[in-house]
Automatic annotation (TrEMBL):
Enzyme class, spelled out: transferase
Domain of life where this protein originates: Bacteria
Protein name: Glutamine--fructose-6-phosphate aminotransferase [isomerizing]
Cited PROSITE patterns: GATASE_TYPE_2 (PS51278), SIS (PS51464)
Organism: Leucothrix arctica
Coiled-coil region list: none
Keyword Repeat part of the UniProt annotation: yes
Length: 612
């Protein structure tokens, strides 16, 4: 949700800032802007409605230069996407601010500032921040002091970057709730919403903590904690390369990331499936982990979006393969709901980014209320969820740029299956089954590779969806969440309204929608629920519905005029939900490309939702 980047260097920083924005565009792309202190020590700003490319065009037409600057790509919350609402926001032509997050008490602050004579040019919550700093930045008061006094009055979540004419040698950054990293170059320093933004200029980072503020100059930087004391934060060297977030030979990041799945799954399994003690793939205090495995009575999973679907899939595994009950809930509901106190609950968050505001808030609530332990399944080491949880089980998918999540999802399923096996291994009688599942997992990358080879056929199938307005996705058992994920992918990127149903529920409503204009997608491998599913599919066919099936040979369903089938290899049952995800991803991708939507940056969405 909005990306911010800032730089302080001896060279012109516009190129660094714009490249940083390009890499942060997955966080929001309604508008973009940049502000620098120019060589006359004056704040200069350029903003554009739309994507970063629009900003680049404007900058090419009317270049600005400076060696200290801040920049922003926006996902609108307060105020429609419009140039006047784009960041950086400026006060009195002397202070510029970029902001990621939400200032909850902006309305009373706005009233106060209007009473003081400030004119607001935007409808954003951010503009109060810059005017507030303006009221406080007086002779004898440094920019850092003014920013710190201002943030004391703010409620909400924010990461800020601030520059000012009056203090041109300083760039101030603050983190409270929203993510912010400090990048360390040689004699130059940067801020970014994540490391991706800064990888072209450095691989040395400091992950700021909540309440931290940074005073950055060309000579170095000082970090202050929330009580104002100077603190040292560890410097981390990232192995990620700026190439990881380049498109390479692919037309879209989504397609690249779909094709990266065999490697991403392999990397998530690497060094783990062979472990004599599988539990050691979970990072955290070993003694506490021992206690957790002895005392666990229940699993509670919370997540958002695609990550929620991986949690729903895992519930089927945990409850059918262990003696533990497992609840799964979206974080935005869980965080505001009272839950009765239960003992022995392992609280699991699942998140690609590790920064999703609702998931973080749910974790915070659980920590306050108390639970056996907290564990996150996450793709970003050093993310807030990873740092705030007792344990982490990392997915190793590499950076995911496409807004529609693909490789993060399948690697989450892999991690969740490893976790299920760990939980199964608490009972010696599960030894053979858990060994079998681990052996199956080793085959998974090759099977995914095989399924990817059906891309052309899936693309052909996608043609039938181009002029459709609605689609139904059906699955049963642990394939119901996979159908949900398939429907989410289609609606996110092709804008076709898609719903998923457990196939047995068709007759309780959705059947009324079925006609020849409603494509029905079903995942139909040969499992113990296949016969039930087949009856449900007959219900659809006899009402004129056209079926698009993903099934193996053993399912014994034959292609007919209103039944189109993509054959998926016969695979062990434990791998089915993971493998059947792949063709659904490809189907949505091709439909979106046919429809000409912006696949990697679908309208109104953002990859990382760091606001409520
Ligand atoms: C956004 C993204 C989704 C993602 C969800 C949860 O909605 O567009 O792709 O699944 O956030 O994100 P997380 O990083 O917590 O998995």
């Amino acid at each position: 949700m909005c990306g911010i980047v800032g730089a302080m260097a001896q060279r012109d920083v516009i190129g660094i800032l714009v490249e940083g924005l390009r890499r942060l565009e997955y966080r929001g792309y309604d508008s973009a802007g940049v502000a620098v202190i120019n060589h006359d020590r004056i704040v200069e700003r350029t903003r554009a409605l739309g994507k970063v490319a629009e900003l680049e065009t404007k900058l090419a037409e009317a270049p600005i230069f400076g060696s200290a600057g801040i920049a922003h790509t926006r996902w609108a919350t307060h105020g429609e996407p419009a140039e006047r609402n784009a960041h950086p926001h400026i006060s009195n032509d002397r202070i510029a601010v970029v902001h990621n997050g939400i200032i909850e008490n902006y309305e009373p602050l706005r009233e106060e500032l209007i009473a003081l004579g400030y004119n607001f040019e935007s409808e954003t919550d951010t503009e109060v921040v810059v005017h507030l700093i303006d009221t406080l930045l007086k002779p004898g008061v440094s920019l850092l002091e003014a920013v710190n006094q201002a943030t004391k009055k703010l409620r909400g979540a924010y990461a800020l970057g601030v520059i000012a004419n009056d203090d041109p040698e300083h760039l101030i950054a603050v983190r409270q709730g929203s993510p912010l990293v400090l990048g360390l170059g040689i004699g130059e320093y940067f801020i970014g919403s994540d490391i991706q933004a800064l990888l072209p200029v450095t691989n040395r980072f400091i992950y700021l903590e909540n309440g931290d503020s940074v005073d950055m100059t060309l000579a170095g930087f000082t970090i202050f904690d929330e009580s104002g004391l100077v603190v040292e934060r560890p410097i981390k060297e990232s192995l990620a390369s700026s190439m990881d977030s380049d498109l390479g030979e692919y037309r879209h990041f989504m397609l690249k990331e779909i094709y990266e799945q065999p490697a991403a799954i392999q990397n998530t399994l690497a060094g783990r499936v062979e472990l004599s003690d599988l539990r050691s793939c979970i990072s955290g205090d070993k003694e506490l982990l021992e206690k957790v495995f002895n005392e666990i009575r229940e699993v509670q999973i919370i997540a958002c979006g695609t990550s929620y679907h991986s949690g729903l899939t895992a519930r089927y595994w945990i409850e059918s393969l262990t003696d533990l009950p497992c609840n799964v809930e979206v974080a935005s509901e869980y965080r505001y709901r009272r839950q009765p106190k239960r003992d022995g609950v392992l609280f699991i968050t699942i998140s690609q980014s590790g920064e999703t505001a609702d998931s973080l808030a749910a974790l915070e609530k659980v920590k306050q209320e108390g639970c056996l332990a907290t564990l996150t399944i996450c793709n970003v080491p050093e993310s807030s969820l990873t740092r705030e949880s007792d344990f982490s089980l990392m997915t190793v998918a590499g950076p995911e740029i496409g807004v529609a999540s693909t490789k993060a999802f399948t690697t989450q399923l892999v991690a969740l299956q490893l976790l299920t096996i760990c939980l199964m291994q608490r009972d010696p009688k599960n030894e053979a089954k858990s060994l079998e599942m681990l052996t199956n997992l080793k085959r998974l990358p090759a099977i995914v590779e095989q399924v990817l080879q059906q891309d052309d056929m899936i693309k052909k199938m996608g043609e039938a969806f181009i002029d459709k307005h609605h689609a139904l996705f059906l699955g049963r058992g642990d394939l119901y969440p996979i159908a949900m994920e398939g429907a989410l992918k289609l609606k996110e990127i092709s804008y076709i309204h898609a719903e998923a149903y457990p196939a047995g529920e068709l007759k309780h409503g959705p059947l009324a929608l079925v006609d020849s204009e409603m494509p029905i997608v079903a995942v139909a491998p040969n499992t113990n629920l296949l016969e039930k599913l087949k009856s449900n599919l007959e219900e659809v066919r006899s009402r004129g519905g056209v079926l698009y099936l993903f099934a193996d040979e053993k399912a014994e369903i034959t292609e007919q005029s209103n039944i189109h089938i993509i054959r998926v290899p016969e695979i062990p049952e434990s791998l089915i939900p993971i493998v059947y995800t792949i063709p659904l991803q490809l189907l949505s991708y091709h439909v979106a490309v046919f429809k000409g939507t912006d696949v990697d940056k679908p309208r109104n969405l953002a990859k990382s939702v760091t606001v409520e």
